[in-house]
Amino acid sequence: MDIKKVVIVGGGTAGWLAANHLGKALLNTEGVSVTLIESPDIPTIGVGEGTVPAIRKSLQSFGISETEFITQCDVTFKQSIKFSNWLNKDNHGSDNSFHHLFNIPSPLGGDLTPFWLNNRDYDYSNLVSPQFVACEALKAPKKITTPEYAGALGYAYHLNAAKFAKLLAKNGRDRFCVEHIIANVSEVKLNVSGAVGSLVTDTHGELVYDFYIDCTGFEALIIEKALKVPFVDKSAQLLVDRAIAVQVPTNINAPIPPFTIATAHQAGWIWDIALTNRRGVGFVYSTKYMDDETAISKLDKYLGGVLSDLSYRVLPMKVGYREKFWHQNCVCLGLAQGFLEPLEATSILLTDFAASYIANRFPKSVEQIQSIQPQFNQVMEYAWERVVEFIKLHYCLSDRTDSQFWIDNRDPSTIPDELKRRLSLWESYVPNREDFFSKFEVFDLDNYLYVLYGMKYHTQVKNLTNEQLHLANQQSLQIAKMGKQLAEELPDHRELLNKIKEHGLQSI
């Protein structure tokens, strides 16, 4: 049987990312339609405000103007995540920090990591990338004359998630002819084969489709409640399970950091994301090690005592992913697929990755599902496991001893086996490209280098020869010169955003 009618259940960032990917892929396929059903009563979670550089490729492929995106979604540029206090204050200072930058390390060729390991007095990210200086100077990654989606430095975005969903919705409807239905789905009916047969709605009656995309968030209306696909719990490895999220108004002239700030605390960490008119702040913690009252008090202290004047939400976090991501004639995406935690902006990343994958391999018939489904499930499980490992890396490398939370995060029983294997290898060898053999490594060599050595990981390497030391020193001086030049030439972050709002960027 041919697949002609495709439905996405649920809006928000996940639903409308899927609608744009599928709408674009299926637009010129005769007889095939894409519909999105969105509840009028369920608000967007709206705390997924950080992205990774891959989102630029998707937005450009959708035909969305970067100028329009920046001006309509309160966007700021994100060039890094700056991790503060993730290491022992006694050993590394009370203001210890490191950057996970978006530019490749050692851009002049070769690898400066062995040089750093022979002289660990340097800040790793400052040594290997000119982007460090630009970030610390609060510079934008491009100029007003730089074309859309291009930059002098690598970047992603911070954004208003609710406004982003609206922009994606408009683009999906107008450009890719996605039908938009406002309705509540009250029942999911299965057919005799156990696949999804129809949806019962409150305003449009019973609706029949051939293929279903579940973007209903934590409710997982189709994949869990109807199809009974189990959830793989990862809370034994990733210990945080709750977040307090708040939006903090800012002065329209306040400086804007071009990076996410992730500040570790006694039982987790705090995200701090600056948009053009506010900050999105979240206190992430483990209820095993900190009660809600203490968490609220500590967030209030971080914000300077203004929390009582603001509206905040306490959000439970069910950490893990689906046992299967594609079952029968249903694929789940977004929070219905799984959730780990906000560190490294993995939620939008995995949604975009999965939606793009399914759009590029969308089955023409029900019969084709049997050949495509197992591969999709295998790829997505691989991707999720690698993300679990990368997030855990930040915790298990910390040498903090000030609370049981950090001590327990180093317990080998909480560390995934593959991560333990890699860390054992990297005790003797600097990571290289061959260690990341799959193109489905969501985080690869560059990401690991910044985190491993930003957190002072000890890799035993041979002493460099005098010639090697000389060449590496010359290269580090050249990178420092590049960083100084970028800091002088690139505009102030807020200054560029104001210019974009007034003049726009050059379209490609």
TrEMBL record:
Chain residues that bind 7-chloro-L-tryptophan: K78
Active site: K78
Gene3D superfamilies hit by this protein: FAD/NAD(P)-binding domain (3.50.50.60)
Binding-site residues, FAD: G11, G12, T13, A14, V185, L335, I348
Any one GO molecular-function label of the UniProt entry: monooxygenase activity
Assigned keywords, A-Z: FAD, Flavoprotein, Nucleotide-binding
SUPFAM superfamilies: FAD/NAD(P)-binding domain
Residues that coordinate or bind L-tryptophan: E344
Protein name: Tryptophan 7-halogenase
